[in-house]
Amino acid sequence: MGGTFSNILLHIVFSTKFRDPLIAPTLRPRLYKFMGGIVRDEKGVLFEVGGIEDHVHLLVRWRPDESVAYLLRNVKARSSKWVNENRLLPTRFAWQEGYSVFSVSKSQKEKVAAYIRSQEQHHKKFTYRQELLRMLRDNDLEFDERYVTEERS
C-alpha cells in the first residue's frame, strides 16, 4: 500500500500589525508555546520559533495536503485571539495581514534554526525591514519596497 511522504520545510516570517513592538520578552515564551500548539493541532511540526518585539520567525515542517495560507490564517487568528482574550497586553494585539515564506532544504534546516534562535543578536545590527528586504532579494522575489511592510500612517 502506497503512502504520501514529504519533508516540506518552511521559514515563515510575519510581524505585528504596523510593526508595533508588542511581543515583550515576558510574553514571548508563552506566545511561542501557544503558536507551537496551533501548528501541532494542524498536523505540522514546529522546529524553531523566535523573533523580537515586532515580528516572529517560524521553522516548520508542513503537510502536503493543506496550504501555507491555511496554516498562517489559523496561527495568526488563534494566537491574537488568545492574547486578547487573556488580556496579556494592555492594548489590542494583532498581526500584519501578510507574511513571507521561504522553502528550506534539509541541508539548511539547522542553519535556519540557528538564525531564528539568534534574532535578538541579529537585530542589534539590522532592522526588521532590512532583514526582510535581504531575504526577499536573496530569494529572487519581485517586490515593491513601498509595500513590503505595513507602516502606521
List its salient traits.
single chain; 153 residues; alpha+beta; Alpha-Beta Plaits; 4-stranded antiparallel sheet; 5 helices; 37% helix; globular
Would you mind describing this structure in some detail?
The protein is of the alpha+beta class and 153 residues long. It has one domain (8-137): Alpha-Beta Plaits (2-Layer Sandwich). It is built from 5 helices and 4 strands; from the N terminus they run E-H-E-E-H-E-H-H-H. It has helices spanning 28-41, 68-85, 109-117, 119-122, 128-138, and strands at residues 8-15, 45-52, 55-62, 100-104. Strands 2-3-1-4 form a 4-stranded antiparallel sheet, with helices on both faces. The longest helix is centred in the middle third of the chain and has 18 residues, at 68-85. The chain is globular, with a radius of gyration of 15 Å. 20% of the residues are buried. The mean pLDDT is 94.
Radius of gyration: 15 Å
The beta-strand count equals: 4
Strand order of the largest sheet: 2-3-1-4
Query: How is the CATH topology named?
Result: Alpha-Beta Plaits
**Principal-axis shape:** globular
Task: Please summarize what this structure is.
The protein has 153 residues and is an alpha+beta fold. Helices cover 37% and strands 19% of the residues. The radius of gyration is 15 Å and the shape is globular.
Helices and strands in order:
Elements: E1 8-15, H1 28-41, E2 45-52, E3 55-62, H2 68-85, E4 100-104, H3 109-117, H4 119-122, H5 128-138
Antiparallel strand pairs: 1-3, 1-4, 2-3
Helix pairs in contact: 1-2
